Amino acid sequence: AQSVTQLGSHVSVSEGALVLLRCNYSSSVPPYLFWYVQYPNQGLQLLLKYTTGATLVKGINGFEAEFKKSETSFHLTKPSAHMSDAAEYFCAVAQGWGKLIFGQGTELSVKP
Amino acid sequence: GAGVSQSPSNKVTEKGKDVELRCDPISGHTALYWYRQSLGQGLEFLIYFQGNSAPDKSGLPSDRFSAERTGGSVSTLTIQRTQQEDSAVYLCASSLEYSGSNEQFFGPGTRLTVL
After folding, report:
1. From the CA of B17, how many Å to the nearest CA of chain A?
2. Mean pLDDT, all residues of chain B
3. pLDDT in tens, A10-32
4. Spacing of C-alpha A99 from chain mean position
5. Which stretch of DSSP H or E encloses residue A101?
6. Which of B25, B108, B23, B4 is closest to A42 using CA atoms?
7. Of all helices (H) and strands (E), which one includes residue A28?
8. Are A14 and A80 a contacting pair, CB within 8 Å?
9. Percent of residues, chain B, with pLDDT higher than 90
10. Which helix (DSSP H) or strand (DSSP E) does residue A10 occupy?
11. Chain B closest CA to A52's CA: distance in Å?
């Protein structure tokens, strides 16, 4: 069965600094991987996904993630944090034909 | 077009009462999912529907939970004899079809509080 581990339940960065949110997965088959963002009192919004092909995936709002099979990782990065990036971020792997298995989430705080 | 909508946005109920939560998926989406988000358990899959196929109920935590999808569109999640541990945000999502690579579009959720 697939599983997802997000390292760090809370990450704090200064505005303009690099954002790095870590995600490791466990899967016995080639995984489909996702990053979702959740703003307060809202549903989840897709940031980016990896299915096949290029291992560096670019998403919305300047985020990107790299699929590294050898490290079973799918870390999310953004070169320069903005105050509006403060939210909770979830990494997920698709199990079977579509149900998502989520990590525990990482709350990102951005300091001015 | 319109996104996934859920109603009510908030529901407060007393322990032992039954509740119904509604989800309207994006028009044309054949796959529909229910998830639960709680402080202790994070985001958990509950159930999915794909077209006219039998639903995957493998994530339902007990037989007090049930769901149906009428006419391949609107879905209702029912919790009978609610318990305090049922307090959570219930999220609905839909996608074009049931496929691991497809994006799931999430609704804003229903926050359920059981007193």
Report:
1. 25
2. 92
3. 999 999 999 999 999 998 777 89
4. 17
5. strand A99-102
6. B108
7. none
8. no
9. 73
10. strand A10-14
11. 9
CB A48 within 8 A of CB A35: yes
Length in residues, chain A: 112
Tokens (6 digits) for A41: 């009192």
Q: Is the dihedral of CA A89, B9, B28, B48 positive or negative?
A: positive
Amino acid at B74: V
B42 CB burial (10 A radius; 0-12, 13-18, 19+) = middle
Of B4, B104, B107, the CB nearest to A100: B104
Residues of A in contact with B107 (CB under 8 A): 43
CB contact under 8 A, B100 and A94: yes
pLDDT in tens, B14-46: 999 999 999 999 998 989 999 999 987 889 999
Question: For residue A63, which amino acid is it?
Answer: F
Residue of B nearest to A39 (CA): B108
**Total count of residues recorded for chain B:** 115
B100 contacts in chain A (CB < 8 Å): 32, 51, 94-98
